[in-house]
TrEMBL record:
CC annotations in GO: plasma membrane
Domain of life: Bacteria
Residues in coiled coil: none
Source species of the chain: Jiella avicenniae
Cofactor: heme b
Membrane association type: Multi-pass membrane protein
Protein known as: Cytochrome b/b6 domain-containing protein
Domain Cytochrome b561 bacterial/Ni-hydrogenase positions: 10-166
């Protein structure tokens, strides 16, 4: 999706969804290993304590919310476009940002879809692919955060400001 000349900043809704996804992913990070225990116990028909069950189901609900939020962001982007990348930014940095965003969206959609398919079919191989994608997602997020900070402190573009609720209107 190319930048839209009509869009000079992200909508409040889009910014809200961005930070909601960040919080939800943080939660998945903290309790991911409980989901693995819940999954193994479910496959083997073993009992698991109440906290483990609650955390396991929370993983499913929160992961599904990530899917919904990512789809909504993509719809918003296709309908309204996105703000332009910095005019003075080198082409390689713009390209790297685009590739990073595509990979982020791909993983934000693929991870929950694989998790749901694994859960509803009871397929441990698919669950394995789901778990395998976690480290690549973390690596791309790390690259994305470094990129966002570089935009602000190095290339001095408004990209970070327009994604921060309190600063969006000071650009
Ligand atoms: C973007 C959303 C999601 C993220 C970031 C995520 C992340 C994770 C992480 C970090 C683990 C632990 C991996 C490990 O310990 O090696 C895990 C395990 C698991 N998740 Fe998710 N998850 C998401 C959505 C979902 C959804 C919607 C489901 C649906 C049921 C699901 C089902 C599972 C299952 C079955 C496992 C156990 C996999 C195994 O141990 O082989 N996940 N997930
Ligand atoms: C779980 C962690 C994160 C995920 C999954 C994530 C995901 C994304 C995605 C998919 C986009 C692309 C938006 C689009 O072009 O449609 C984006 C944009 C952006 N993100 Fe993140 N993000 C995360 C964390 C962060 C953090 C911690 C920061 C700040 C340091 C940040 C700053 C930004 C900025 C500034 C943009 C807008 C870039 C622009 O306008 O060109 N993100 N994020």
């Amino acid at each position: 999706m190319p930048p839209s000349p009509n869009r000079t900043s992200w909508s409040r809704f889009n910014v809200f969804l961005h930070w909601t996804i960040v919080v939800l992913i943080l939660f998945q990070w903290i309790e991911g290993e409980y989901m693995s225990q819940f999954w193994d116990a479910t496959l083997e028909g073993e009992a698991i304590d109440r906290t483990g069950v609650i955390l396991g189901y929370s993983h499913i609900v929160i992961g599904t919310l990530v899917l919904v939020a990512a789809v909504l962001r993509l719809v918003d982007r296709f309908v309204a476009g996105r703000p332009a990348h910095g005019a003075d930014e080198p082409q390689w940095a713009v390209l790297l940002a685009k590739v990073t965003h595509v990979l982020l969206y791909a993983l934000l959609l693929l991870m929950p879809v694989l998790g749901l398919v694994a859960w509803f079919t009871g397929n441990d191989d698919i669950a394995g692919y789901h778990a395998f994608l976690w480290n690549p997602l973390l690596a791309i997020i790390a690259l994305h955060v470094v990129g966002a900070l570089a935009q602000h402190f190095w290339f001095r573009t408004p990209a970070l400001k327009r994604m921060i609720p309190g600063l969006r209107h000071s650009i």
